[in-house]
Amino acid sequence: MDEEEARAAAVPRILVGVDGSPDGVRALRYAMRQAQYSGGDLWVVNVVDDRAPVSDLWELVSTPQTLRQAGESKVSDALRVLADEGFPTERTRAEVLVGSPGAVLGALSGGAALMVVGRRSMSGLERMFVGSTSLAAAMRAECPVIVISAASTPHRTGGLRAVAVAVGSRSIPGSALEWGIREAEARKAHLRLVHVAPETVGVEGGEFVRAAATDLEHQLGNLREGHPGVSMEVELLLGDPVDALVEVTKSVDLLILGVRHRRGVVGGSIRGVLAHAHCPVGLIKQDRS
Question: How far apart are CA 256 and CA 235, in angstroms?
């Protein structure tokens, strides 16, 4: 095992995809701050997509060499950003790879403790189709993923000192909860466990909400004992899940969602939250029960 491999095994690495866009720079700065407070290293990667549709003119001028040169230029720009911020060069690894960005980043995630990717923001119907690369990477990831947009979150996050985890009606997904607790501890933040029930539950909805609250509060009691340094609470909301969770993102620094998907397809609710969120969104594979 060489020195780099030994350090990678001992120190957590934060993988960040950069593409030269404002969203890529936003993801880079966010990943840098995660590395600063976690003590981790940065793994900066640009993936040159050689399968993207091209025009006849582009085919004349693009070669594997020119594509790689373009990627190296974007990585150099990213390293300059880190240098300007004072992040140590010895804690940074940079690479240019060729392939499908989502697939390549997803494959690399097995060697990372966290992956951060930017999500391009658009408007109208385009929102539901935006972020194909970030979603593809997140769905393939073997580690937790944070998705962030320069448009919706241009400012530095962390000032609200609150982290939220979306939970089910009777249970809290273990992987999402463990991550939420780690983030709350590291940030010295308040932890909110949020469950959203549809308003269509009708007259019986009151009993449903009370039963769910009782079950979740019981679980929370055990958690409080195990993590006395983290303040936490259960919130039961009524309404459309996407609308309610997007509203939550206005008052937290990070919203964590447990993800279950089939064949790499993420549900419409998660897409909706990602498209409209006002804060970074964390995605993690949810425990199967």
Answer: 14
Helix 22-38 and helix 174-187, axial crossing angle in degrees, nearest 10: 80
Q: Tell whether the torsion through CA atoms of 48, 116, 285 and 246 is positive or negative.
A: negative
Q: Domains of the chain by range and CATH? A: 3-148 (3.40.50.620), 162-285 (3.40.50.620)
Q: What is the pLDDT of residues 241-266, one digit of tens each?
A: 999 999 999 999 999 998 875 555 55
When pLDDT is averaged across residues 75-99 and rounded to a whole number, the result is: 96
Q: Under 8 Å CB-to-CB from 197, ≥6 apart: which residues?
A: 169, 205, 208, 209, 212, 236, 237, 238
Sort 26 into a burial class: Cβ within 10 Å, 0-12 / 13-18 / 19+: buried
pTM recorded for the entire structure: 0.86
Strand order, beta sheet including 114-118: 92-98, 41-48, 13-17, 114-118, 145-148, 281-285, 254-259, 162-166, 190-197, 232-238
